[in-house]
Amino acid sequence: MQYEEEQLLLLLMASVMVLLQLLMENEDLFDEDEEVDASKRRRIEAAEETPTSIWPIAVQLSCAVMAFCSLQQGAWWVKERSLIWHDYFLMHAFEDFRWRSCVAVPRDIFMWMVQVLSPRLKLQDTHWRRPVPVDVKLAACLHRLVSGSSYFLCSDRFGIGCSTLQEQMPFVLDAIIQDLGPLFLKWPEADEAGRISQAFYRRCGLPNIAGAIDGSHIKIKNPERRHASDYFNRKRDQSIVLQAICDSDNAFLDISCSAPGSVHDMRCLRLSSFFRRVEAGDVLIDPVQTINEGFQLRPYLLGDQGYAMQPWLMIPFSIHGRSSASQQMYNRKHVTGRLCIERSFGLLKARFRILENGITSSVAWAAKLVHATCILHNIIVKNQLGHDDISAVLEPTIRRERAARNLRRRQQGRPNSPDSGHDVREALVSYVAS
Q: Which InterPro entries match (predicted)?
């Protein structure tokens, strides 16, 4: 059927070209040797004196050809590309393990993501060209994040243009951040915070831990020239710092990815929105646990010695000083609990090789890309843990309940806190030694 339509189009174009040629070359309309009546010769001579009279006819014929071509679904405007790799191998032939190695997320989660992101990513179907399907667009972008390959290789596999993939990838990342970010990358509520604290206690033996915090360098290439020297880290690589807080299951609870590679970890924390939320009393408030016969222990984070001691941030004792047996035991438990953030960074960079290979783009684009990969990492982790059906997070009642709990928390006020983080650490040392 398509072959017959192409033949009809070629026939129409050839007929128009012949007719235009006859109109333009008036000397071919008649033979000088033939006898032509006077009236016909006068009409021909009048046409020769005003040759521009044929252009309205030419314009009308051109419009007719363009109108016919508009019914051909982009035959003039879109280069035909092969979708065999996507339609057959990826969607049907690949087993689950090979599927995850190409797009990171399991097959059922991928189809759910297509359904959720379609309202934002689906484009209008016109007569001039067919839009790229949402599943092809999403799979191509995920494959680039997973493999770290160039735009050319990824677009060739999925049968779309290189410039098309480069143009659509920002829209896909924005859709992931805006639609899935509030659902999968958020600070836990009171019930979830209690579960995280119990999981940390079973792992390392320290009570009421809210999470582990650390920073990791994400390689970038060719940042802004004016401040290029600010992005060199201690290894002389250009990078941005990903500061993250994770739970015991290696899922991220909060991230910040905007500081240059030369910035210290504590400075990154002070520049982050999380630090402002802590100072304002919006997070790390409850649940409060009583230890050592009356000490009120608020939730706190575990960090390394790159951070300064805070009432809500515990660091280990220095290994260079003289420490007691209880302090050494506290250090061992502290390191055991803090290892989850190192594993989280390792899993993130292993799943999304583009973070390890280096991001060739602006700093703002790199930060957006890192944010999207952290959201995808959390989706994978929560799916592996066998949480409830992921589609349930879209229920609007969850958001209403969350807003109501936050309002009640602010109305209750902020509990009394110790004067310094050293008091909290000494209380934990006494708890460990008891």
A: HARBI1-like, HARBI1_dom
Non-local CB neighbours of 138 within 8 Å, separated by 6+ positions:
110, 113, 114, 117, 121, 172
C-alpha to C-alpha distances, 140 to 121, 161, 162, 173, 235, nearest whole angstrom: 13, 11, 11, 12, 33
Rounded to whole angstroms, the Cα distance separating 114 from 136 reads 10
DSSP 8-state secondary structure symbol assigned to residue 30: S
Calpha distance 157→251 (Å, rounded):
31
Tokens 């049907």 locate to: 92
Q: What is the pLDDT of residues 16-47, one digit of tens each?
A: 666 666 666 554 444 444 444 555 555 555 55
Structural contact between residues 369 and 173, judged by C-beta atoms closer than 8 angstroms: yes
**CA 371 remoteness from chain centre:** 6
Residues of the chain by 3-state class (helix, strand, coil), percent to 5: 60, 10, 30
pLDDT attached to residue 63: 58
Cα separation, 149 vs 381, whole angstroms: 24
The Cα–Cα gap between 366 and 150 comes to 15
Long-range residue pairs from 358-361, CB within 8 A, at least 24 positions apart, any chain: 358/219, 358/220, 358/221, 359/218, 359/219, 359/220, 359/221, 360/220, 360/221, 360/222, 361/220
Please list the residues that pair with 215 across neighbouring strands: 243
Please tell me the pTM assigned to this model.
Answer: 0.74
Residue range 160-218, pLDDT digits in tens = 888 888 888 999 999 999 999 999 999 998 888 889 999 999 998 899 999 999 999 99
- Which amino acid, 386? G
Residue given tokens 């206690």 in the structure block: 201
What is the distance between the alpha carbons of residues 132 and 142, in angstroms, rounded to a whole number?
Answer: 15
Under DSSP, is residue 252 helix (H, G, I), strand (E, B) or coil? strand
Which two three-digit tokens encode residue 406? 């936050």
Under the banding of pLDDT at 50, 70 and 90, the label for residue 396 is very low
Contact 296, 416 (CB under 8 A): yes
**Is there a cis peptide before residue 287, judged by omega within 30 degrees of 0?**
yes
